[in-house]
Amino acid sequence: MRETQVAKNSVGVRKEPLTGLFVFLREQELAVTHSAPNRYLFQVEGSAPDIERVLHIRLNGLGSPNGLNTIKAVVGDSGA
To answer: Could you read off the pLDDT tens digit of each residue along the chain, which spans 80 residues?
Structure first.
């Protein structure tokens, strides 16, 4: 194993920077619900207004084809 692999905890992104990101997201009332083993992908859940505020995007509610659900889609940045 190369030294760079050990420094990165074998594979993927180093844990320390993401720990800070996860703390920030939790402080912004978002929940980190899943993180892939390589830490390149993680899932965050929260209310639509909180996601819009933290990510500086605007979501638009769209009706699903079956008419039973509302789908949220990014329609642009918030201008912030």
So the answer is: 444 444 444 555 566 667 888 889 999 999 989 888 776 788 899 998 999 899 898 887 777 777 777 766 666 665 55
Residues with Cβ within 8 Å of residue 62, at least 6 apart in sequence: 70, 71, 72, 73
Structural domain of 68: 47-80
- Structural domains in the chain (count): 2
In this structure, are 60 and 42 located in the same domain? no
Distance CA 70, CA 76 (A): 18
Comparing CA positions, the residue from 24, 46, 14 lying closest to residue 33 is 46
66 and 79 assigned to the same domain: yes
